[in-house]
Amino acid sequence: MKDKIFKSFLFAAALFILLLLAAIVYALVSRSGETFQTYGFWGFVTNSEWDPRSATEEYGALSFIMGTLYTAFLALVLCVPFSFSVALFNGEYFKGKKIAGVVRSVVDLLAGIPSIVYGLWGFYTVRPILIDLGVSVQGFGIILSALVLAIMIIPYASSLSGEFLSMISNNLKEAAYSLGATRLEVVKHVSLPNAASGIVASYILALGRALGETMAVTMLIGNTNRIPGGLRDTGNTMASVIANQFGEADGLKLSALIAIGLLLFIITALINLIAKLVMKKLSHA
Amino acid sequence: MNQNISISYKSRKAKDKTLFMLVCLCSAIAMVPLFFIVWDVISKGYKNFNFRLFTEVTPSSMDALMATTNGEPIPGGIINGITGSLLIVGLAILFAVPLGLFIGIYLSNNRGKRFARLVSYLTDLLQGMPSIVIGIIAYAWVVKPLGGYSALAGSVALAIMMLPMIVRSTEETLKMLPPAYKEAGLALGASYTNVVFRILLPSGFGGIFTGILLAISRVMGETAPLMLTALGATVVNWKIMEPTSAIPLLIWDFYNDPNLVDLIWSSSLLLLIVIFLLNWIAKIVARKWNV
Asked: What is the pTM of this model?
């Protein structure tokens, strides 16, 4: 009897996650309804105008969607050589050795540093360097945000892909070595093809992190409400515009900001789903 | 012919060496930012890292300006943020830990079932959700209906962020326990409830506790969701229905107020110390109570 109660209690707890997600979707949809009724879904998504002045009030998300894509993909590209090296270092070259543990701990600590501290560091330390290099006058913009974002997502990209690399069976690798392959060739022809979907999935998840990152980007991107003209330009991401303007917003503007939150939620959910599907392919292979 | 082989062997060997060196070099570069950031925070923050930080509330912008023009250090500290962080994170722990444990137990005991797979997928989804979106949720659920910003709203947001991490670590830990533990308990006639509370949870204590500590350290530095929910306050507040500050919120305030900029680094230093300490304790616990 007691067991039955306990088991149904556990079930109820699990059911709670379901309700939580349903309530999250409901809250986002219902609070952003006004925006989608006014502009329609595509009208909102494809409009790059963001004008909060009451006389000419008009809201569109395109500038922020573009800003988000620019920063996140540039960050991903910048992080690949480093996170991939860390993954190879930990999962292949020094697998199981003490030094791999040290590298892993250090990189994991990167994930522990709060976003706002990254923002401070980017603002006070990285920005002056970019100004000196002549990247842009103020230093703010897509490049600065993407640089700091790239560092922030290294631990997410490297830990998972390192794990997949280290899971490859030694038999496969030894077979290649016995044929006279060098380490590079083993990595290229055995390790990578076998861990490919896992590695891809870990980069997709890292991309998801970069898309949703808020504080650091808010402090570094320059906060201009238009489509960035290029990588040296300033802009705003979906997360940063919410962080910046939520405080003083009400009415249609508040609803538009929540609509951007809903879009961000949809995008990250899709990314999660894609990563899941890619990994599923791995377990079948 | 022979020469060709030896040349190609040499070039293969050289390529192999190059990759190895590149990997080592890039791995080393990947670790550099951590030391730069920590060094930055320490070297700029230690001057103001004093007793007052823990005893006095945030100074007003005016007081800070007066002190700076007189060439004195900025008065005041961040006690309102420290107590606020304790209150908000403490409440979030109360919400998230029991629930996360139960969901984790459910998932580890119902592996492979359709419903468990769905819950597991939704947990991942929740974990990948941007913190600012979670801030919006807590705003819509708590701030709007109750008519004001509050510590409670902040802790709801942080609890939603902690929940998936705790579920995952509990599930993973319990999965790794030998099935014989559970079977032995049941064979001795223990009830399912007893098996969970007397055998599974105690044997998995290390992993579960580590997971909780890491979840706390992750939400400790969260700023974005708190901006939308707890808002901030200049006084020490222990009431859960009032606006409350937190250390990261104060850092954000200081960043935006040129007069208070000097306090940024000492507050960040304190935040980093707390987070690294939690990480370190988590590591020790994980090693000591290894399953």
From this structure: 0.94
